[in-house]
Design goal:
six-stranded mixed β-sheet; 20% helix; alpha+beta; CNF1/YfiH-like putative cysteine hydrolases
Length: 315
């Protein structure tokens, strides 16, 4: 993700402040549910929960063994401000809350790419890439985010699943569309049968990027103009330059545009053949809801990492 802009230090949330209280379980838009388990709040998708052989969940920041500014956090990524012992304990607690103690976690070493690994077994060490898939029971696929888009794919016919981490680079490289194609190749999945959950990520309300992103995405996607609030490239003439007579090199940078990564990845799912009614998009913005999620854009280096998981129960 682009580096966060420098801003004044964010004040600590006081006990009793409206943002210090997470919403009650279930207070999210249907068909999403926000439930409590073992002191954690976990976001899930109702159509996925109806499949008895499937385990899935999107973590929140609430609870856990990590501590920052006096807040107990469920940080699931190995960050400089946290200890490996805390992170491993948080991961075990998250799995226990999902009822997935008997599954083996298979995280990735994410590099903002379009690389996907089909796992038949847990690799000896995390693979470098940003998506994985499996039809093997007992594996729990995982991606970590703190603004990027987590996407879980489920094939209820072939009992195959995939987990995708889509930042702007992965989205531009069509990682989501490629993941659908890989499931078709590896497991004989049909796109029309796939279900997709696009989890919490930074919304277009908070995701301002350089104007040249319009050109980057327009070069790759026919409908790219729909991803932005303004279809500007940053190369348009600036009339203020002639009005204020500022010398060359002293003009302010072009105003940014707002990018909707969720819409971009939903478009890829549709292009890959998924049915619109089988794509479920969370409307929760990680940057707006730092009471519930981590946001690198808002918190910088002191942000933790969320984890989105999906797997096939072994029994």
């Amino acid at each position: 993700m682009p580096r966060p802009r420098k801003s004044s230090p964010k004040p600590k949330r006081r006990a009793g402040h409206p943002l210090s209280r997470a919403p009650e379980p279930g207070k999210v838009s249907s068909p999403w549910t926000l439930g409590r388990s073992r002191g954690l709040q976990i976001l899930q998708l109702a159509p996925f929960s109806k499949l008895p052989w499937l385990v899935h969940g999107f973590s929140t920041r609430v609870g856990g063994f990590s501590s920052l500014d006096g807040e107990r956090l469920l940080n699931l990524g190995f960050m400089e401000w946290d200890t490996p012992e805390n992170v491993n304990a948080n991961r075990k607690k998250f799995q226990a809350a999902l009822g997935a103690d008997d599954l083996t976690l298979a995280p990735l070493k994410q590099i903002h790419s379009s690389l996907l690994y089909p796992f038949a077994a847990v690799p000896p060490r995390p693979c470098k890439g940003d998506a994985s898939s499996t039809n093997t029971p007992g594996l729990l696929l995982a991606v970590q985010t703190a603004d990027c888009v987590p996407i879980l794919l489920v094939d209820p016919k072939k009992r195959a699943v995939a987990a995708i981490h889509a930042g702007w680079k992965g989205t531009l490289a069509r990682i989501t569309e490629k993941a659908v194609g890989r499931m078709r190749y590896e497991y004989g999945s049909k796109a029309a049968h796939l279900l997709a959950a696009i989890g919490p990520s930074v919304g277009s309300c908070c995701y301002e990027v350089a104007a040249d992103f319009v050109s980057k995405f327009t070069a790759q996607f026919a409908d790219a103009a729909e991803y932005f609030d303004e279809a500007r490239s940053g190369e348009e003439p600036n009339p203020l330059q002639w009005l204020n007579m500022a010398p060359p090199g002293h003009q302010p940078p072009p105003k940014g545009v707002h990018l909707d990564l969720r819409k971009a990845n939903r478009s890829q799912l549709l292009a890959a053949g998924l049915r619109p009614q089988n794509i479920f998009v969370s409307d929760l913005c990680t940057a707006c809801r730092t009471d519930l999620f981590f946001s690198y854009r808002k918190e910088g280096a002191l942000s933790g990492r969320l984890m989105s998981v999906v797997g096939i129960r072994s029994k």
